[in-house]
Amino acid sequence: MSAAIKNKPTSKRKTWAEKMLPDKVAVVKICESDFADIPAGSTMLIATPTIVDKYIRQIPKGKFTDIKQIRKDLAAENNADYSCPVTTGIFLRIVSENANEELQKGKSINKITPFWRVLNAKSPAAKKLSFGTDLLIQQQKNEGIIK
What we know:
The protein has a single domain (15-142), classed as Winged helix-like DNA-binding domain superfamily/Winged helix DNA-binding domain (Arc Repressor Mutant, subunit A), CATH 1.10.10. The chain is built from seven helices and three strands. The chain has helices at 3-6, 16-19, 49-57, 67-77, 85-104, 124-127, 134-142; strands at residues 27-30, 43-46, 82-83.
C-alpha cells in the first residue's frame, strides 16, 4: 500500500445538525436569466436551513403548507420576488433529517421541527428522506392532516 493512500485523511460526514448552519445568512440576488419559475430580472431569496426551520415551527398543529407557499411567504418576508426552489427543497430536507436525528437522540416529538406539516409523503423530497416516510405519515394522521 502506498504512503499516500495509507496517510489519506478520512473525511467525516457532517451530521444533519452541522448542516443546519446557524451562522449562515440569507441572500437576495437578482436572477440574470430565467431560472425554474423565476423570470430574469427578478429578485430571488436564497434562504438558510435555520430560516426554513423557523418557518415550519410556526405552522399550527394540524395544518399543512406546501413548498410553493413556503417559498412565497419567505420571499415576501425577505423583500424578494421569489425564493429559490432548489435551495428551499434542500433546506427542507436538512431540517427534516435534523428533526429525525434529534428524535433518535431522545428529543420529544413535540420538541422537534414538525416537518410533516410541509412534506407530502408522495413528493420527491419525502422519498429522499433517509428514514423513510412512516414517521411523516403517522404524524400527519395524528394531527388530522390525512385520514
